[in-house]
Amino acid sequence: MRVLFLTRLFYPHIGGVEKHVYEISKELINRGYKITIIAEHHDRQIAQHQNYEKMDVYRIPVKQNWFKKVQIWWWLLRHIKLLREADIVHCHDVFYWYLPFRFLFPTKKVYTTFHGYEGNMIPQRKAILMHKTAETLSLGNICVGDYLKKWYGTKPTLLTYGAITFDKKATMRHLKGDTFHATFLGRLEEETGIMIYLRAIRILKQHGITVHLTVLGDGSLRDVCEDFSTKNNIDIVYKGFLHQTKQYISSADFLFASRYLSILESFNQKRFVFAVYNNPIKEDYLRLAPFANEISIQKDEFSLASEIQFYLQNRHLLVEKITKNYKWVENQTWDELVDQYEKVWGRRRAFM
Q1: Backbone angles phi, psi at 101, to 5 degrees
Q2: Which of 53, 134, 219, 290 could link 95 by a cystine bridge, Cβ 3.0 to 4.6 Å?
Q3: Which of 255, 260, 251 is nearest to 304 (CA)?
Q4: What is the pLDDT of residues 249-280, one digit of tens each?
Q5: Does residue 262 come out as left (phi exceeding 0), alpha (psi in the -120 to 50 range) or beta?
Q6: How many domains does the chain have?
Q7: What is the extent of the structural domain holding 280?
Q8: 257 & 196 share domain
Q9: Separation CA 220–CA 230 (nearest Å)
Q10: How far apart are CA 138 and CA 346, in angstroms?
């Protein structure tokens, strides 16, 4: 059985979608599938075609301009054999890549996974229309998050929040004193709320609570963050984007994270999560999740600082929530997620 995944970016690029495709591809290969992945080519040090861990990976050289779609369609037309030979085509947020070929191969099994929304923007009509088009022309779809139903009107075949490799040996930290270590996971952009976290740390410092911060990520606000932390004498270590984050999550007292994968990885290391939002769709992204009541969700630095103080003063509540989240995430594995993919594709697990 040949599966073709279409995704904007892929490993070694770091991101939630990239890891999602990478991990489910590994599991599918273990089950006997042949996996081909087509992504954009951004790192010139990486070959445009390579076999990586038995995944046949192709990368499309594109320029980031208005002509990009035509470049992708032209590349796919010249490599139409990849589409023709696939038993299943599964698009990860980039259904428009396959749109012209949907009519060229009307009987081809095609599916879509909707992973997210448009940055820090409220979805406009064009984005909603593209989602509905992908949903209508796909035989089934997977929605990463319940908020997609509300904001895009999508009717999911399967609803998920991502997955992890469950850590049976994770241990809980016992918080003591007034000095703590936190880890931030995400891009240094407005939508991830990095400045809200930094301003909350400043407020906590004024109340005698010191938070040392490790940042796993980078972005356009890097200089702004550095200037703010210097002026306010906040201790920050920038590690950039990393493939392996476990040691930085497990060494933290608590986590600053607002994306599903980072949140699940924090649960997997028995760490409590403080998340922030700065627009209505991000609020629903967090509050409509099944674990919403077991994390702290705040809209500004004042409420966040207050919440951190509250939980530090009521640490038994942290233990209760961490225990509940760890039990929940035990069933959110890549193996379980691939089972769900196979159900969407209408196949049983054992086919080899």
Answers
A1: -85, -15
A2: 134
A3: 255
A4: 999 999 999 999 999 999 999 999 999 999 99
A5: alpha
A6: 2
A7: 179-329
A8: yes
A9: 17
A10: 13
